[in-house]
Amino acid sequence: MVRLRMSRCYREKIISLFSHPCFSDDLTPLQSFLLLDPSENMREILQNVAKQQGVSNMRKLGHLNNFIKLLCNVGHSEEKFGFTYEEIIICLRLALLNEAKEVRAAGLRALRYLIRDSNILQKVLRLQVDYLIARCIDIQQSNEVERTQALRLVRKMITVNALLFPSSITNSLIAVGNDGPQERDRMVRACIAIICELALENPEIVAKRGGLSTILKNVIDCQLSRINEALMTTILHLLNHPHTRKYVRSDVELEQILAPYTDFHYRHNPDTAEGQLKEDREARFLASKMSIVASLRSWSGIINLCKSGNSGIQSLIGLLCIPNMEVRRGLLEVMYDIFRLPVPLATQDFIEALLSVDPSRFQDSWRLSDGFVASEAKIILPHRARSRPDLMDNYLALLLCAFIHSGLLEGLVEVITSSDDSVSVCATILLGELLHMSPPALPAHSYEHGLSKLRDYFCDLMELCSVLFCRRASAAVNYLKRFHEKKKRGPKPNSLYLDHIIRKSLAAHYCRDQHLRPQRDIFAIKDTEEALMMNLRDSQILSHKQNLEWKWVLISTILKWPNANLRNNKEEQMHKFVRRLLFFYKPSSKLYASLELDHSKARQLTVVGCQFIEFLLESDEDGQGYLEDLVKDIVQWLSSSSGLKPDRSLQSNGLLTTLSQHYFLFLGTLSAHPQGVKMLEKCSVFQCLLNLCSLKNQDHLLKLIVSTLDYSRDGLARVILSKILTAATDNCRLYATKHLRVLLRANVEFFSNWGIELLVTQLHDRNKAVSVEALDILDEACEDKANLHALIQMKPALTHLGDKGVLLLLRFLSIPKGFSYLNERGYVTKQLEKWQKEYNLKYVDLIEEQLNEALTTYRKPVDGDNYVRRSNQRLQRPNVFLPVHLYGQLVHDKTGCHLLEAQVLRCPVLDKWDGIKQLKAALWALGNIGTSNWGLNLLQEENVIPDIIALAHDCEVLSIRGTCLYVLGIISKTKQGCELLKMHGWDAVRHNRRQLWPVVPDEQPLIHLSSAPSTLSLNSESTSSRHNSESDSTQPSMYILGDDKLESSELSEDQPLYLRPKLLKDRSPFTILASSRLVRNRFLISLSGKKLRSTSDPKGTGSSSKLHGEPTLGGLRRIRTVTEPSIFSQIQGDVFRLTFPNFSLNVHFSAFLQYKNPGLLGFFFVVLYPPFSFLISAPTAHTLT
């Protein structure tokens, strides 16, 4: 910026005015100047600016600066200035012709402050000032000050009225955007940003001047993900609406982003030197990959790139069959990014590549100095949502369907069998991921079509097979088998801390109120005293002093030996064995404690140490002395650590880098055992930990305390946790709050009895980050009815937490107890009014912000900051669980359903964005209403589902199609919703979305049931919960075993994260009527038209209950109210229609669907390698598991 100063002559003139009586002694010269008549000031300013000679450039600078200050103080008023705007603009226009760049910059700045509305802008353009502005943009690149002011003025013109924007300036901006990169113009990105901004407001002028081609050219020129995505978003926004879609030739211009891959001789710049071709090609690959991924993150991009015929993705997949390793490697990276998968390490070793993408692999954010166990658990442990739809599943299902039907599976097989080993390994892992993702995400017959095509493809290949092909095919089969086994096991905890929490939680569930160790998976060794003594000798612990050379596997076996403890073995050798181990693990010996965390035996030594603690606990009195000696030594070490001076770092004590931090695991092992708790109390461990909670600069110690203690029993451990939650530093309180999420997901016993109370306390924390985190954890906790009941019992204050607090409060309405609590206080009626007026629209903003954050580099703005932030890194497979909606909660109660009948949701004209937003609000509301059987009855009565499907197929606004896809996915949340959609030609997944190996039932014609009214009573609370509970839906997620769902299977170290699929309850079929004809031109979506039913007239007999114009089935007319289900209809044949936007496919069920499906992997094995046919089992019962 140029510092503007008044000339000496001008200052002297101002000072001479001080003799005027209107000035007092305490006024500055500038204040005195502003107290003069504005018209006199304006006259003097304009005269000096317009003079050709006699006024120095410095003086003109001062006058232009004073002109801005005059505008800011007086305002825009021609009467006060004494000049018209035309006269002012004519004078200021002369400043843009000055030879000094500083004066021209000041003139541009003055014009920017002057232009306030469209009227002034029109006068500026009428006087052809725009040509002078364009001249300032095109002038020498070194005049950055002037060009910066010119671009700021241009942005002001767009803000005032983009429709008046002149083509002269547009040409200048586009010229800089086209040639700036070659000329190394520093303003090129600013000009491109302004072109994008103008394209959103006035696409016509940008398109006519070739600006859209400039944007797409710069997309391939930009390797920064944030900028690349912003440029692509501009084009995709124009493709979204029919009024702006005409400016973009999607089949030509949009597919330019594919050129670096599809054109093997592609050159972005013709003058690129031969020596730089490889580097330039890699840069174009990266930019093209970013733009392709960004396109497939929007509905405009998906629909245009995946359309039927010669689509963009078909072009990309077809390239996989061309033996160009560079292109294949690049395309595989594109596919990994599209499906949100981590790219494996480029290596020929399959196991090494597979481990590189293992979600359990160590991450830097899991260190003690960073997020520690809370960060690890958030990735490893699944969300507690059992029934709430995850919108990302709908998005991935559409992508999977599009790519599978475009031949991606066949393309990957071609890459596997005809590429270099590293590329083949990468393609094999991608194929395994896609085969693993498809069964839970897609209807069975959808991906079965892809399998049939894959089978035919392999049959053709086998006829032309070579030795090399067979070798690679056989290797791929073995690799996929390993991949399948790894996926079947699931992710496992990386750290011993998280493993400790989960195993203790499981042990408590399986061995509740029993003080015996759970059965372990140990070596089958004959339980004799001779064998035990032999293992003692072979372990070398009695004969060698080198601790690390001991046979630690045998030591672990001895400690896990059935009935092996000091109570049953009185031999001196056993006591010597214990003394040797005790000395090794004592902190004072500095043997175990001094080892580095990354030591090769670190994990094994810590596991044996925990087993040693349990061994001593089971030895009763004989082991108490040894155990007490160890615990007291640990307490002494803790006291010395906490006695450090405040200015000393914990790193100097080795806590961050050595195994000394694992002593807290020993204390956690003791706290999980009743006898261990007594020992901790006896040795004053709890008192020592409480003292640590009061110290400053001990955040790492407090993290270890929080992460290792067992809280399943009421006692001092919970007191310590409560103190850290309320009295520690901000960072410690935040971490302790996050740890409550770990305990929730690990299904710690009786969490609803004490954990919910701690979370409610955190809602009132003075640090907003802590309260927001607690609110998010509570929202997840309420997925379990026990936690929701506990929260309602506490009646917390939530409205002070903003909209998220209101949404959590609305969850109370999903159960009768909470509905009664809020309805008695008139809260429901008030919320209905608010949602009708504003919250339905706010809900659209909320859900789209979450989707944008999950799919793009967009990050939610910080509170009080409206600046849109973007990140260079995309989140890996984020979840976007459907936010709570008032209507979705009300449909779980009879009274709530009656209240909803009076709500009106109308679809306005879609010419303006406000109308589009209102339609989205109506769609989301209808989708949430359809989450229960009673809500589905309401939708059937209004016959709106055909309209939603029609919008999904034919709506000209492409983002509406995407919203309809999400909404239909929500309606398919229940089995009854799936049946209803199937009748209208829209198929959905019929099983738990995270049920990896579903059994697909036979599709049988639905039996025509009696039309007699149902005996379900809406007055029954139990009926309400059973008939409409979300936990009974067909899409619950994986979850950790609940208290009432425990089975008798034994603990095993190979169990996959202690997760079990929930058994679906048998439910009587919800009857469905045949759909009415799709009315494509109908745009009224309403739930009105009926009087509100009273409780005394549940059937609505006081009003007309007959729906006119509805089809009949079997001679029965559809006469139904909210309190009774309708009837099933017969379906002709077993043909289903899989329908996504721009996808249509008719598929018959085959005999393959009658078998238990272990995933597409099993079918792949049968085709490639017949000996693996055992993976497809015999026919099983046709039930959902």
Description:
β5 and β6 form a beta hairpin. The chain is globular. With 1185 residues, it is mainly α. It has a two-stranded antiparallel ribbon. The N terminus and C terminus are likely disordered. 56% of the residues lie in helices and 2% in strands. It is built from 55 helices and six strands.
Give the structure's gist in a few sentences:
The chain has 1185 residues and is mainly alpha-helical.
Distance between the termini: 69 Å
Question: Rg from C-alpha positions?
Answer: 36 Å
- Structural class, please? mainly alpha
Annotation field: number of helices: 55
Task: Count the E strands.
Answer: 6
Neighbour order of strands in the largest sheet: 1-2
Which oligomerization state do the chains in this entry correspond to?
single chain
SS strand fraction: under 5%
The largest sheet, given as strand count, sense and whether it forms a barrel, is:
2 strands, antiparallel
Q: Which overall shape is indicated by the principal axes computed on the Cα atoms?
A: globular
Uncertain spans: 1-32, 513-527, 644-652, 1004-1185
Domain Rapamycin-insensitive companion of mTOR middle: 527-746
GO cellular component, one term: TORC2 complex
Domain Rapamycin-insensitive companion of mTOR N-terminal: 61-443
Organism: Cyprinus carpio (Common carp)
Task: Write out key terms for the chains shown.
2% strand, mainly alpha, disordered C terminus, globular, 55 helices
